[in-house]
Amino acid sequence: MTIITFIAFTLLVAVISYYATRKTDETSSDGYFLGGRSLTAGVIAGSLLLTNLSTEQIVGLNGQSYTEGILVMAWETLAAIAMVVTALFLLPRYLKGGITTVPQFLEKRYDKSTKAITSGLFLSGYMVVLLPIVLYSGGLAISTMFNVSEAFGISSTAALWLCIWGIGIIGSIYAIFGGLKAVAVSDTINAIGLLIGGLMIPAFGLWVVGDGSLGVGVSKLMTEIPEKFVAAGGPDSSIPFGTIFTGMMLVQLFYWGTNQAIIQRALAAKNLKEGQKGLMLAAFIKILGPLIVVLPGIIAFYLYQDQISIPDEAYPTLVREVLPASLVGFFAAVLFGAILSSFNSALNSSVTLFGVDIYKEYINKDANEATVVKKGKLFGIFLALASMFIAPFIANAPAGLFGYLQEVNGCYSIPILTIIVVGYLTKRVPAIAAKIAILSGVILYSISQFVLQPMYGDSYPHFLHVMAILFVFNVLVMLIIGKLYPRETDYVQEYTKQVDITEWKYVKPVGLLVVIIVVFTYIYFQ
Known about the structure:
Blueprint: H1 2-21, H2 29-33, H3 41-52, H4 55-68, H5 74-97, H6 102-109, H7 112-145, H8 148-152, H9 156-209, H10 214-224, H11 247-257, H12 260-267, H13 272-287, H14 290-293, H15 295-304, H16 314-322, H17 325-363, H18 369-390, H19 401-425, H20 431-456, H21 463-484, H22 507-524
Helix pairs in contact: 1-9, 1-17, 3-9, 3-12, 3-13, 3-17, 4-15, 5-11, 5-13, 5-22, 6-7, 7-9, 7-17, 7-18, 7-19, 9-10, 9-15, 9-17, 9-18, 11-19, 11-21, 12-17, 13-22, 15-16, 17-18, 19-20, 19-21, 20-21
């Protein structure tokens, strides 16, 4: 029954995605890479959320909350503020310029080589870190949930390879052959399922804690383990409270405002109003994120702290123990959709970056749009195969994968955010300043975290503080260079008129409301 439910829901998503995208012109760049610039608010919000939410986050953050409590909600709630900033500041400028990729803006603002360096950083991050991690964590979850090794009479390693390749092949079909619109439509359907399924887990968990009453369950948790409901992390926690005002917000701004795999959904909006509404809707839902990726870990601590030795086992243990058997297939299908979403979204963005920013620019300048799309798809096939081969070997990676990933990503996230922010806020800072800032950011952060931090251990500043220090340093370097060697002319962004950029009239009050809710949440859990 579990397998039937799983297959039925997965096929339903595939059929709906096919019918929703069969008329999209995928021989043009806009059609394939941006879904014909036709996405509406609901589709944008659903795709944003599901691209973000995957197994490494659901399992990893619940594992951290099992150990540390609600303080890890910073990764979720502060994302809402970053989305508000993106909707108000970045998205209007992106759509005004009619860009397909973030590096395209950098070409217009600085020069072609700055764009190439940034595209290369994005692609290396996706290829070496993001895609293999998503495949590994997803393969592990599906393999464990369905007990694939016993079902097929194979070793656990072989089961892991089988699941990784299954996810990789299906995800590649969506991303490479369906384009962004197929990814976005399937994301939206799965997002609804994930929202329902994700909320079912804590609901059933609280039901068990409260002996049949959700209210009693909440009351028991807050009175019997109050230490798990303190939002401000201490200096020894994974998120010291001070980092919320330094590197944490920078990481969130990079992720939601400049990361190609995420922002591509908003770039595909049919107009600015729909893009802003989609971001605001996603921000409201994101505030509820801790119910899915934090609360279950705390419930698992209350119920099974004597049985769980590895924190990352908290979420799967809770699912196995509290979810009725009849719902396991549905939840597995939804989780499978979340895994697929993160994989195919990053893959589709990689195809876009390669086709638009590298192939068209450096390999075949005279290529028509159909050729650019075709070559992008070929690169996507290569990237998908490489990721599928690399993923199984991540089993030997360090523990605490979620935090480790956030730290490693700082090598390219902060330098890219630096040059984009300075690019939009200034008019005379030259291209050489952007190149120096990128190199400085990558080199200094790598030295800091992989040389100095191991030497000094716990006495060394938290990596989020390091990110903030280097961000300020590199902004100052760029401004000084801009003062000494300014551009000959002011940078002026032209309006390409590809989409209407009339602002949604409620975007500012709604954005303010989101910020107030986040601040109140922190005050309440002090």
